[in-house]
């Protein structure tokens, strides 16, 4: 789940009529000759009336993978806690979500703000779960709007110590550096993280929203100064944000062992309008530049500044209509598969092999339960279905052609 904030800026809303089926009528299919073959019925048992059983076995389809090329094993689905502790979610609901996550086999909790650290710390103390049973990741932030600016050694160490106090834990499993700081030397950042780990306050460190160039610079500095290297990059990945995670992060993993922790499969929001129509809301429409996690946001603002008044709005309207058509096609395909578009989006993201952990958010135990049913869709996403999805999306990233320096002479 995307850990971003949403504002109230007016946005263009595109209405699309698209009925959504439940998972009870899911059908098995196999691909032959590029056509979808829907065969016998298969129930995923995701009826909203289905009782949430406190199970002792992991959710079907849940797997455990090494994060990066480290020895730390995490579930392929993690819980993003920003929506769990959002306004409107009671303490009892939040605790129920965390308990369901543990009972379902999820062992990674991603924390994104100080309030979440305090609340999850209280729950961990009440439940008394073994420290070895879960993995905690939290972030070190920097902001030009805050008095605590940059990624100085002082700010990193003070942030980690404050997080430990709020969490009431002896150590954090992974400290994530959220966004690189161009004003701070990379050597200072990697030395500070090395110190944090040597003190026993953290076991590993990683990055979020870093470019492949910045990740490689950090790795090079770690090797040069004999510091501990990062093990993971946390990045947005879903059907409409693909380039970084499909083209560049797999290369980072193969070369320097940095794994991929993805978020954002629920970025396609679907709600009911008062008139009965379905409204598809591209979640990026609600993001401001300062809170955006999407690579498209700067692109949008730059285009708005460069384009003549009115022409960019027309392009945006046209792109919005095309996006709406894609969402209608995705909803129709999800209906054939017997699932919701959100569940299809989750399964599609997990189908990408380099994704070692996919972060999901929830505001209720029922919502998390429904999201976890997406794991059972994975065997159904055959080659023909994936090709059909590519046909609908029309956005498969392609590396730019290499240019020979000899040809320029």
Provide structural commentary.
- The chain has 409 residues and is of the alpha/beta class.
- It is globular and about 50 Å long.
- Helices cover 37% and strands 18% of the residues.
- Strand 6 (77-80), helix 1 (91-104) and strand 7 form a beta-alpha-beta unit.
- The chain is built from eleven helices and 15 strands.
- Helix 1 runs parallel beside helix 10 (365-372) and helix 5 packs parallel to helix 6 (243-256).
Topology:
Elements: E1 14-15, E2 27-32, E3 35-41, E4 64-66, E5 73-75, E6 77-80, H1 91-104, E7 108-110, H2 114-127, E8 135-140, H3 153-167, E9 172-178, H4 186-198, E10 202-208, H5 212-224, E11 232-236, H6 243-256, E12 259-263, E13 268-272, E14 278-282, H7 296-306, H8 311-337, H9 341-351, E15 355-360, H10 365-372, H11 383-393
Give a summary of the structure in a few sentences.
With 409 residues, the chain is an alpha/beta fold.
Number of strands: 15
Shape: globular
Q: What is the C-alpha radius of gyration, as a whole number of Å? A: 22 Å
Question: Can you summarize the main beta sheet?
Answer: 8 strands, parallel, barrel
Strand content: 15-25%
Mean pLDDT: 80
Key attributes of the depicted protein:
15 strands; 18% strand; 8-stranded parallel beta barrel; globular; single chain; alpha/beta; 409 residues; 3-stranded antiparallel beta sheet
